Structure formats: structure tokens, C-alpha cells
Structures
1.
Amino acid sequence: MPQTLLATDRFPLADADKCVQCGLCLPHCPTYRKSGDENESPRGRIALMRAMIRNELPLTPRLETHLDRCLSCRNCEAACPAQVPYGRLVDDARAVVAANRPETWGRRVLWRWAVDGLLVHPDRLRGVGRLLRGYQRSGLQAIMRGSGLLRLLGLAAVEAQLPPLPKLKRFATVYPVQDAARGEVALFVGCIARIVDQPTIDAAIRILNKMGYSVHVPPAQNCCGAVHHHAGDRQGAQRLIAQNVNAFKPTEDMPIITLASGCGAMLLEYGQHVPGREATDFGLRLHDFGAFVEDHHAALLKNTATYLDGVAVHDPCSLRNVMHSAKKTHKLLSRMSTTKITKLADHATCCGAAGIYFLTQPTMSEQLRHDTLQAIRHSGCHTVVTSNIGCALHLAAGIASQHLDVKVIHPAILIDRVLRLKG
Ligand code: SF4
Ligand code: SF4
């Protein structure tokens, strides 16, 4: 008889039982497509979760691996006729796993030092960002990359994702416009993105100002909590949710704009993770940047159609399956271009970034990125536009490793360039 597991009470078995095992989700699951293994499919994982919760199957490292290999891309949810809320199931199953497994040294280091010790401390992150900028500019980066030491230390994958860092700054609390004809918006700037992607944030602020919005950047905001949530750390996620809900309270009448769909998918569903009206209202105020511009301000781009040959759009899973804004971003970019903006072939799959998946599941992550890089090659593009910083860093590192002459940018950067070009 398997051991009785702790913390199974919150697992929504009734939702898992909605799965009628039809298998329609299987061809949409990136890990099943790669492995051909039922245990690496949505249907198989749901069966494993049910058996684990019902105490019919012991929680073994193998079972844990099958759950960990899920990307949380939620392609299966989009394909499921029975509306099984797979994303919630896998996150809740991981919370059960987290409550029952022994803590290993590696996990303690990753979690206590990198996640709880750094990711959720914006000041410490900024300090590390400054050190990393020094590391890049001093030439030490080139020496370390050439020495093979990064690989020995297990840091090669994460270091490869580091883009050239600009001079880091603190964001102002508000970027006002004289004639705020449209009103005010609040901007979510995330944790890693505010260090590694400041040009995108600057571009978005310029565009929103140009549209007639004053832009507020609540200073007490923090990491969205997605890394904690998807790893089964409910308490850690709830702490960050409470912090962000409070941080955005002074802007409570304003739409909240996010520039990273991976964060956006988490922010949108705050109401599912903590009880109370405030968290739900937070999600209701949330907009992806591209969708917000397309929905409200397409007129701004009316006379800007430009020759944007060689631009391809990458659809992050979080934008497509959770924020449901991928079509809007494509429409927006198409509106700006006199030539066809292509979507990458097989765009409805996952590039393998998936939060920290590229670190925890490097083999599957690499296989999936390989396919996306093939699609980039075949498209013949010189610029890939994506709305998620995690995908952008992951793809850019792969592009660099293959010596392709392709840039990866956020839609805000492209729109900003076009608007500047058109004066
Ligand atoms: S499509 Fe839905 S109901 Fe069918 S097997 Fe997949 S999760 Fe279950
Ligand atoms: S979330 Fe993605 S990887 Fe996980 S089971 Fe569903 S389709 Fe497969």
C-alpha cells in the first residue's frame, strides 16, 4: 500500500475526474509529441495525479519526473472538449509533491538562494545586475565562456541567456504626460525583466505616453509568483500575490499592463490562487501590452504602415492559451506592416523556456527549442517578435549558439521604432 500523502485535501479531484480520456489533447502536447510516452501526455499525467491522490500509486521519483516534465504550456487545455482545467491540476499536484518529498541539497540551494534569496528582492537583483554588467564589460565573460568553467559549475545554461545589460536604473514612480487625454495606466515590470529588458520597458512607457496615458510604475511591486506557483510553493506564491495586490492598490482605477505574458498568465489568475475580491479584481484589470494597444489605440498606428520585411511572430504559450491575446498581437503587428508578418511554422507549440523549465529539464527544453530554431531558419526572418521575456532570452541564446543573424525583440520595441521612424 502506498504511503498516505500530506496536503492532498486541496487537490480538485472532481476536476481531474472530468477527463474522459478521449486523447484529443495528445497531439497538442509538446512533451507527448517528443516522447510518444503516455505518461508524458496530459491524459497520462491526469491519470497519474488521480492515482497518487487516491493513494493508489506511491509518490516515486519517476512519477515526480513525469509531472515535472510538463511545461505548464496549457496547450492541452485549449484542445480539451471536456474543459478539464489542466493547469490548475498540475500546479495542485506539484503542491502535493512539494509537501511530501524530502528536500535535497540542490533544491535547497536553488530555492533558498536563487529564488527566495534573490528573485523576490528587487534591490538585490539590481545589485547582481550591476555586477553582471561589470562581468560583461570587463571581458571576464568572454574568458569564462572560453574556459569551460561555467559548464563545470553548472551555470552555462543560465549564463548563456544573459543579454548585454544596459546601465541599470531605477524606474520612476510615474511617467506623466502633460495632456493625459486617455487617463492613467499602471505598468507591471516583473523581476528579471526589469534588470535584463529595460529597453522594452522604456519603449512601452514612451508608446503609452504617446497614446495619452500617464504611466505609473508602483515601486513596491515584486515578482509575479509564477515560479513559486508552478513549483508547488503555494505559500511563497501567495506572499507575492498579496504584495503585488497591495502595491497596485494606489492605482486601483487603472488598467494594469504587462509586458511579459508568462507573468501575465499568473497575474490574470491571482483570484484563483487566493480568496477575496481584491485578487480577482487585480486579474480583471490586467492587459497584455500588445492587446491593449490593438484594442484601444489602433488609430495611433493608422498612418504608420512600414516595410517590415523579415519579421516573424513567435506566440508564447502563455499569451496564446491563458491570456488569449496572441491573435491581437499578430493583428497589431500586421497593421503596422506593408508586408505580411509571418507566424513561425508550428507556432502552436512551446519553445521550451517555460519559466525555469530550461534549467530543470534541459534535455526536453533543448529539443523543443531546436524545433523553434528550425522554424526561425525556415522563415528566413531577421527579427523574431515575442511577448514573453522568458521565451525571448531562451530563443536568443539558441540563436547565438547557432550563429544565426536574427534578433529577438518585444512588440513594444518594434512599435517604438516604427513610431520614431514616422515621427
Ligand atoms: S482532451 Fe481533455 S478529456 Fe480528453 S484526454 Fe485530454 S484532458 Fe482528458
Ligand atoms: S501543459 Fe503542455 S506539456 Fe503539460 S500536459 Fe498540457 S500540453 Fe503537455
2.
Amino acid sequence: MPNLSPSISSQQAVLDQLRAARFGETLLPDLAPDAYARGHAAFEARSDQRSLIGDHLAARLANRDTGPVAVLSVGCGDGSLDAPLAAALVDVLPARPIRYVGIDPFIGSTTAFATALADLGRPGLSAEVHTTSFADAPVSGLFDVLTFVHSMYYVPEVGSALRAAHALLKPGGELLVLSAPRGALNQLVDVLAPPVEGHQQWFSEEIAAAFADAGLQTEETVTLDALLDLEAASDEVLDFTVQARLTPALRSLVRDYLDAVSVLHPTSGVPHVPHPVDVYRVRRAV
Ligand SMILES: C[S@@+](CC[C@H](N)C(=O)[O-])C[C@H]1O[C@@H](n2cnc3c(N)ncnc32)[C@H](O)[C@@H]1O
């Protein structure tokens, strides 16, 4: 039974139990790309974050005065966020050529992204996709908007990714990095997830510091306060949540932890986990 208001002491107690259970153990296995993508889709279906992000980005993308518009989505996944954004952009800027580019290292995702954008059937929209990491992507041209939506966690070095992304902006173009803080939810990742290619996952704290180190001045950071329903979530969703393949014993502790950090949803009254996302924005000088 969840605590109906989060208790720091019970949260800390379960986190300590998880740390103790992991102490001296070999790393948990990471998620294969197809399990990651399935877990991600099922996870998003339990949250209102996707629609908050969609509305926020649609407003920013539409804010282009004249000429063709070019958008680059880094870590585009299966296009379930970008395809509706591309459609909204075509609707709000009719008769303006729109170039929409996705980058993702997982071929299952880039194939789905290409299909989702092609299925829109919008004549003014040209879509491209690159199946590779951001560092290796052969991207040409400059962009009005470049997004990293929940993908900066995985780059080898945040500062060099930010500088490379900034260099791909047109004058006046915007870089938007959406990332989660190391809040209640992602403390689980810190304790349980194996490193990604030798590094920890980077959350908002590291990203904010890397913007400052790179000398890139961010506009005021916006936080979108989403809520996530993980009650009775499947094992696949829990594995995605912690970014590792859990054992049954760890999964049971993770469920206890999620109960401890849950709050009541203001309308349904059902326990939900706070699931905020920070939006960092940098505009390239004109
Ligand atoms: C949480 S998903 C987000 C997908 C999509 N942006 C969305 O919001 O639905 C993170 C994505 O980043 C991709 N990714 C991981 N490492 C990456 C890298 N080095 N460069 C670009 N994308 C990467 C993953 O394959 C995955 O599709």
C-alpha cells in the first residue's frame, strides 16, 4: 500500500536496502535495444509527460518567422513524439518547406521513425533519418530547432555533445535539451543501472553544469511536472524505469520504493510517481 504522501525516511530506507542488496554484486544486465524500446513505449503510456512535452515543443517549433524550417531530433526513438510535432508544424506553417531529421543508433527505432513521418503523407515535409549515435551522424546543413528529448543521458560526454549541437544551429536557431533531474525516480537508475559505455547516465544536474562549462547561456529553464502511474506496472516497464534487467527480489524492493515515493494524483486520487522533465533552451546568436 503506498504512502499517500511521500516520506523521505521510508524512501531512504528502501534505497538503502537496494544499495545493500547490490553491494559487492556484479552489474545488472542492461536492456537490449528492442526491450528498451518496448519498455519505453509502455512506460510513456502510463505518464502524462509525453503530451506535456508535445504541447511545449509544438509551441516552440511553430515560432519561426519566414522561410524553410529545419528540425533535428537527436535520439528520436520511434517517432511517436516527432511525427505529431512534424504534422503540427506543417499545419501551422502551411506552404513552408519543412525538413525533419532524426538520429538514433537503434535501427528498430529509426525504421519506425521513417515510417511514422512517411505515413503523415504531407507534401511539404521531407524526412531523413540516420541510424547512428549523435557523435557519428553524417548530418548536413544547419537547423532552426535541434532537440534532445530524453537522450542526453546516453552521450559519452555532455559538453562536447552540447557544443556540436550548438554548431549545427542556424543563427537564431534553438537547442532544446529535455532531461529528467536525479529526482526520486532516477535515484533508482543511479543505484541499479549499469554504466552506459563506461559512464553514468547524465541527468539535469550534469547537463546544467555542462551548459555552463561550455559557455552556453541557457534561457530560463522550464520544468514540466508530469505524473507517472507505476501501480501494477509490468516487469518490462519496471526494467525500463531502472534501466536494467531486475531480478525478482530487486523488483519487489523497487515496487516498495515506488510506493514510498508516490503521491496522490490530484484528480484520480490514484498513487503516481512524480515524473518531472526539465527543458533547457539555448538560442544561437543571430
Ligand atoms: C528515452 S528514448 C527517447 C526517444 C524519443 N526522443 C522520445 O522522447 O520518444 C532515448 C533514445 O536515445 C537513443 N540514444 C541512445 N544513445 C544515443 C546517442 N549516443 N545518440 C543519439 N541517440 C541515442 C536511444 O536509442 C533511444 O531511442
